[in-house]
Each structure stands twice: as structure tokens, then as C-alpha cells.
Write a structure and sequence with these properties.
By secondary structure, this protein is of the alpha/beta class. It is built from 15 helices and 13 strands.
């Protein structure tokens, strides 16, 4: 949705974690901001500052917000009130207070219309988590969720006024060229490559894929597997590199060194998109049974890749039409069977890839950002009508 010449440019405020902070919400916000700029609109970002990694004021970042700091809420509200609309990226762990409840004071202090993006909608929240999310949504003009599962949870379990909820999918970048990425010479080209990527830490479930590969290796049908990424900074801070090093030891213990590669290469968004598109199959073995949004899953579908995933809600929803296979959590043998099925059948992989490619256009960032901007335009006109 590109702004027409002479059309009023929307000034969008965004409060969120933001690069160089490494987390999914920071990456999400940066991608969205780039698209708003590309469409000809102005963006003021207030970057959440945890005190360990002070927010860097560069590019669209006009201020930092230090959680729990005296006067921070009032100062941030003043900064954001010059905007036509303010987007609050909501996740329980990124704002100050118990379960991030400082965000309520912040929304109350902002006079501009507030749109909340609900990144996490827990199936079984604590009473306080439920109270916080209900109050956050009640204070917002619109609440954006990224899946039908999240919408159903908000309206059924919290509850939230369904008239305020808008479903807009998580965005993804488009690969420019689909290429085959050779690894390990001619022999590797005969075997499709499995790929898992992202920041690493307990709950990623990569150990289950390694155990599944051990089963397949014993049968003589094990593909190569690349684990791309470094340990999540918060995990590294509190627990060190224990998870990743444990995976490496597991591979060595099972004698899978020739099959499993740990890749810590830093890649730009464009390079990562091409890297994902070069894989044969993406594997998302997450332990979570509660994940309603996965940016990595959306990236895989946008790249036209077949997916094998555990049955977390977003995977069940997005893969239902045939772009991948869903396996039960903790069932290594079922995971091994799914890998064997997809690896040994070019026809199945092609069918999955075609379905992923069919779904991809709606997930690309320009289309996703266009839906945000259309909603902002509606809010702006509604606000002006009320003011008159």
C-alpha cells in the first residue's frame, strides 16, 4: 500500500524491542518499520531498553524506554503522542513490572490511538497474566493477532471484544531466486538437506531431530541436517552456551558428525532468506504446545519450503492445507517417520512446496504492512470524524 502523491503521510509510533537487540519481536518490528517507510510514511520508534543493552538512537529510533525508570512512562508518552497512531508490540517479558504490567500505565499515558500487536496469547495463563492481557486489549483501539488460534483464545478465554480484533499474519521476506545449496560434495546432493534455524535455547527441540536422525542412520536413510544460529542472548546471559554445546556432544555421542552441521554464520535478512530457500525441508521441532505465532514458520512457507513441525498451534493451522507434516510432541519415532517420508519422496516434497508457494504471497511483508496501513487509515478517519 504505497501512499498516493498528495495523500497525508501517517506518522506511526512503535514501541518495541528493536535491533541491535536480538529477539523475534525486534526483528518483526524492524521489518514492519522498513515497509512503512517504503510506503512513504513516517515512523518514530521507541526502543525498549533493558539496561544491559541501551537502546541506540539511530535511523527510526528516536528514543529509548527504560523499564521501571522514574519518569520513563511520561517521557515515552510525550514522544509518541506526536504520532497519528501508536503500535505497541506486546509480549509479557519485554515490559517492566510483574508480567510486564507497566505497559498498562504506558498505554494510559498515550493520547494517540493505540494498536496492540499480541505476540503471545497463552492457553493457560496465570490469573495475573490473564488480567494484564485483558486490560491491555481493553485500552487499545485495535488488537492485532496473527492466527485464528490467537483470535479464538482471546474471544473465548480472556475475553476480549471481538470487534476490536484484527487478524493480520506475521510477515516474511521473499527470496529472489530459488537455488540448490550443495553441501559436502556430490554425495550430499543426493540427499535432501534438513534445516532448522533461529536463536537457540531450551525448548527448540533440536535434540529430538538428532535422535530421529540416529534412527534413520541405523536404517541407512539419514539426510544431512543443518542447525543454523547462535544461542539466544538472554539464554547465554543466564545459562551460558549449555544447550548448544549439549547438542554438539549428542551428535558426537551418536556418531552423526558427518550428517549434522552447526552453522553460526551471521546472515543479513536477504542472505538468510536465500539460505532458507536453498534448503530441501525445514524442520521446526519446538517443544512448546502453546505457540500461536512463529516467524520462522512463516519464513519457511514464504520461501516455498516443505515443513515438518511439531503440533504447536501455528503449525497445525498454517500447515493444514498441505504445505507440511505435523507430528506429536516428544514422539521421536513419528518425527523420524515424517523425515523419512518427505526425504524419500520427491513427489511429496514438490506437492508441499507448491502449496507453500501458493500461500506465500499473503505472507510477504509488503502485503502484510499494507493491511496495517489500511487499518491505520481507517482509525485516522474515525478519529477525525469523532473530533468534528
Amino acid at each position: 500500500m504505497v501512499r498516493n502523491p498528495g495523500e497525508h503521510a501517517t506518522r506511526v509510533g512503535v514501541i518495541s524491542t528493536y535491533p541491535p537487540t536480538q529477539c523475534g519481536i525486534a526483528t518483526f518490528s524492524a521489518a514492519l518499520v522498513r515497509q512503512f517507510h517504503a510506503a512513504g510514511h513516517d515512523v518514530d520508534v521507541v526502543a525498549l531498553d533493558d539496561g544491559k543493552n541501551p537502546a541506540m538512537r539511530k535511523g527510526p529510533v528516536v528514543a529509548g524506554h527504560r523499564n521501571d525508570a522514574p519518569g520513563a512512562v511520561r517521557a515515552t508518552a510525550r514522544t509518541l503522542d506526536r504520532c497519528d497512531v501508536v503500535v505497541v508490540q506486546h509480549e509479557f517479558g519485554i515490559f517492566g513490572g510483574e508480567d510486564g504490567d507497566e505497559v498498562l500505565d504506558l498505554i494510559d499515558a498515550i493520547d494517540a490511538p493505540v494498536v496492540v500487536v499480541a505476540h503471545t496469547v497463552l492457553l493457560t495463563p496465570t490469573p495475573h497474566q490473564k488480567e494484564v492481557l485483558v486490560e491491555v486489549c481493553a485500552r487499545a483501539e485495535r488488537v492485532i493477532v496473527m492466527t485464528q488460534t490467537a483470535r479464538d483464545r482471546l474471544t473465548g478465554s480472556y475475553p476480549v471484544d471481538p470487534d476490536t480484533i484484527v487478524t493480520i499474519p506475521h510477515g516474511a521476506a521473499a527470496p529472489t531466486v530459488h537455488v540448490v545449496r550443495p553441501m559436502g560434495g556430490v554425495a550430499a546432493l543426493r540427499r535432501p538437506e534438513l534445516l532448522t534455524w533461529g536463536l537457540l535455547g531450551p525448548g527448540k527441540g533440536i535434540e529430538h531431530v538428532i535422535d530421529a536422525l540416529a534412527i534413520l542412520h541405523a536404517d541407512g536413510h539419514a539426510p544431512r541436517y543443518t542447525v543454523s544460529g547462535v544461542t539466544h542472548p538472554n539464554v547465554l546471559l543466564h545459562h551460558g552456551d549449555v544447550y548448544r554445546q549439549g547438542l554438539i556432544r549428542q551428535v558426537q555421542r551418536l556418531g552423526l558428525d558427518d550428517l549434522v552441521t552447526f552453522d553460526a554464520t551471521y546472515r543479513s535478512v536477504e542472505e538468510l532468506t536465500q539460505f532458507v530457500a536453498s534448503s530441501s525441508v525445514v524442520v521446526l521441532p519446538y517443544d512448546s504446545r502453546d505457540q500461536v505465532t512463529s516467524g520462522v514458520l512463516v519464513d519457511a512457507i514464504a520461501a516455498g519450503r516443505p515443513v515438518i513441525a511439531t503440533a504447536f498451534p501455528h503449525a497445525v493451522e498454517l500447515l493444514a492445507s498441505g504445505a507440511g507434516l505435523v507430528v506429536p510432541h516428544g514422539d521421536v519415532r513419528r518425527l523420524a517417520e515424517a523425515i523419512r517420508t518427505v526425504v524419500r519422496s520427491p513427489e511429496i516434497r514438490s506437492e508441499m512446496a507448491r502449496e507453500a508457494s501458493r500461500r506465500a504471497p499473503d505472507l510477504l511483508w509488503p502485503n502484510v504492512a499494507g493491511r496495517y496501513l489500511a487499518m491505520f487509515d481507517e482509525l485516522r478517519h474515525a478519529t477525525h470524524a469523532v473530533a468534528m
